[in-house]
Automatic annotation (TrEMBL), chain A:
Keywords: Membrane, Transmembrane, Transmembrane helix. The chain crosses the membrane at residues 21-44, 64-85, 106-131, 151-170, 177-194, 233-254. Pfam families: ABC2_membrane_4 (PF12730). The lineage of its organism: Bacteria, Bacillati, Actinomycetota, Actinomycetes, Kitasatosporales. The keyword Membrane applies. It comes from the Bacteria. This is ABC transporter permease. The keyword Transmembrane helix applies.
């Protein structure tokens, strides 16, 4: 058996030697932190004009992550490209000839990419949080307040999980283009629309991004998020189930199909 | 040693590879021949465990490909030159392969040097020409210094210099005692490099024999003579009991089964001036086309294109002008049986 560390080493080389890794991960961080900071500035200057109940349920932690709804799209592209370019370039055959045990190759690739996404995700969430709090001034919260550290840490986890989910989808579809065309509209629009309409919210709240993002919330019901039948960790658990299903699906496709 | 046993691959209703059993023996170049769509690439993909066989098995030194601990050290394969990430440099493309099989990094520079890509090692491989891409693919195949090498149509789309380079490379690798399995749909190319032949058509095994046997069975060799004293020459040959076939079209005589040396000496004895005395070999390409004619899937349906391409008509003694060209090359390079 070829050793698993060797596969990890190889996958690390693959990931660090393509340009898309840098620009997607930098975009994920910059977009999240930038948009969050911008909106925190807006919240801060218009705070007194907000309706009373919104002021009461204002969640400074969640407010410092609002940019993630766009920043996550770059994470999704990162996840898709890590797996999808193997197919679009034909590299998958070369890769499998080198590491024919497909589970080992898949696990190696996903491990390296997810760890990297987690590191960038945590850097993003901490940066976004502290910058946001600095901007919010008197409306801000502190990292040592109840539930805040969990939310900041959870936001980083969320980023890694969304990337991993995308890797699984790309492996199932065996195409970057197809995966991006499905995932981006879904997470940008469809999921939010479904969650915005009260008729579909009961179902939509179980979608991976809706459930997973509950972890970033400290004040229940903040930002019109409504009641959820799960708590922060329960929500993240639901997202993890989605991720597991996607990764398993991707693995089975890779395992069964001709390369 | 690679052993195929009853290897079969069906795509939907289509049988691409049909119950193939053969062995690729060590230390020789084995040519894997078949017309377009015969199933060569599919067979090679199954050998590397990339495609799952519908039935049958492939064993490499008795093992299934996926059970080879670090497969690049056993088998190097060039299936598709474009099977690299174009956004990565040549060096990095090879580096990640080397690392996966714990091949020392220094080997990456070595193989890049071997295929002549050192000057462009740090360039993104998507800018590479077809020939450079092919060289990069070959570098990848050589990375693990494997005993077995497999090339799928390595000369496809290459210029004459590139073809010559690959031909010499394969011969050099075989001379080092490596097993080489190379596919082609050109008999002429195989005749220059392969010692053993496996021919398939529509996925079925058509022939499995040594190159020498194939030549013996399928090619007619003869000597062509031309003289300004053609009638006297005919008489002399007739007196010596040698049959000469008159070919009025070219004004030559064709003699079967007598060595050129003997014919030359005979002419000299009788002081006959010769303008031509040349050993000829019938085209192996024609023999190959005859062999696979029934199994060729995609015939050109141009007017006049019959079952056999023009010039492949069985025993037409008037050779097309291009035939001796590679026939002679073949004579010069083939080791004359084993
Ligand atoms: N993935 C696939 N799905 C469906 N049919 C396929 C697939 N791959 C190959 N085939 C079919 O199987 C047959 C054998 O194809 P293959 O590529 O192995 O032939 P080949 O001998 O390599 O031909 P060529 O000389 O043109 O490269 C062809 O008829 C082809 O259309
Ligand atoms: Mg082919």
């Amino acid at each position: 058996m070829s050793s698993f560390p060797a596969v990890l080493n190889s996958e690390w080389t693959k990931i660090r030697t393509v340009a898309s890794t840098t620009w997607t991960l930098v975009a994920a961080l910059v977009v999240t932190v930038g948009i969050s900071a911008g909106l925190c500035t807006l919240f801060n200057s218009t705070f007194t004009e907000m309706p009373k109940e919104q002021q009461l349920t204002f969640d400074p932690t969640l407010a410092s992550f609002v940019g993630m709804s766009l920043g996550q799209l770059a994470m999704i592209i990162f996840g898709v490209l890590v797996v999808g370019t193997e197919y679009s370039t034909g590299m998958i055959r070369t890769s499998l000839a080198a590491v024919p045990r497909r589970g080992e190759l898949f696990l190696g690739k996903l491990t390296v990419a997810t760890v990297l996404a987690l590191v960038v995700g945590l850097a993003t969430s901490f940066l976004s949080f502290f910058l946001g709090q600095a901007i919010l001034g008197e409306h801000s919260t502190g990292i040592d307040e109840p539930g805040v550290l969990r939310a900041v840490f959870g936001a980083g986890l969320y980023m890694a999980l969304i990337a991993l989910f995308s890797m699984g989808v790309a492996a199932m579809l065996r195409s970057s283009v197809l995966a991006i065309c499905i995932l981006i509209p879904f997470f940008l629009l469809i999921s939010n629309i479904l969650n915005g309409v009260s008729a579909t919210r009961k179902v939509a709240q179980y979608l991976p991004d809706q459930a997973g993002s509950r972890i970033m919330q400290v004040v229940p019901g903040a930002m019109d998020s409504g009641e959820t039948p799960y708590g922060p960790w329960g929500g993240l658990g639901i997202m993890v189930l989605w991720v597991l299903a996607s990764v398993l699906g991707g693995y089975l496709v890779l395992k069964k199909r001709d390369a | 040693m690679i052993e195929l046993e009853g290897l079969t691959k069906r795509f939907g209703g289509k049988v691409a590879v049909d119950n193939l059993s053969f062995q690729v023996r060590p230390g020789v170049v084995t040519g894997f021949l078949g017309p377009n769509g015969a199933g060569k690439s599919t067979t090679m993909r199954m050998m590397l465990d990339l495609d799952n066989p519908t039935s049958g098995t492939v064993r490499i030194d008795g093992k299934h490909y996926r059970d080879l601990p670090e497969p690049l050290k056993y088998i190097g394969a060039l299936l598709d030159a474009k099977a690299m990430h174009g956004g990565r440099s040549a060096y990095n493309n090879l580096l990640c392969l080397a690392q996966s099989n714990r091949i020392p990094t220094s080997r990456v520079d070595e193989v890049l040097d071997l295929v002549g890509l050192t000057p462009v090692a740090r360039q993104k491989s998507k800018g590479f020409s077809l020939g450079m891409g092919q060289r990069l693919g070959i570098a990848a195949a050589l990375l693990g210094d494997p005993e077995i090498l497999m090339f799928d149509e390595p000369v496809n789309g290459l210029d004459p210099e590139g073809i010559l380079w690959i031909r010499n490379l394969m011969k050099g690798l075989a001379a080092e005692g490596r097993t080489i399995f190379v596919s082609s749909h050109l008999m002429s190319e195989m005749a220059l490099t392969a010692e053993h032949l496996i021919v398939i058509g529509q996925g079925k095994l058509l022939a499995d024999l040594s190159m020498a046997d194939f030549i013996q069975q399928n090619s007619r060799s003869y000597v062509r003579m031309r003289s300004p004293q053609q009638e006297r020459l005919k008489d002399v040959l007739h007196e010596a009991g040698i049959d000469a076939i008159d070919v009025p079209a070219t004004g030559t005589l064709e003699i079967n089964g007598v060595a050129a040396e003997q014919l030359g000496e005979l002419a000299a004895q009788h002081q006959i001036v010769l303008h031509e005395l040349s050993p000829q070999r019938a085209s192996l390409e024609e023999a190959f086309m005859r062999m696979t004619a029934d199994s060729v899937e995609y015939h050109a349906h141009a007017p006049g294109a019959g079952e056999l391409p023009p010039g492949a008509a069985a025993d037409n003694p008037a050779r097309p002008a291009d035939v001796p060209a590679w026939g002679a090359g073949f004579d010069a390079t083939h080791k004359g049986g084993k």
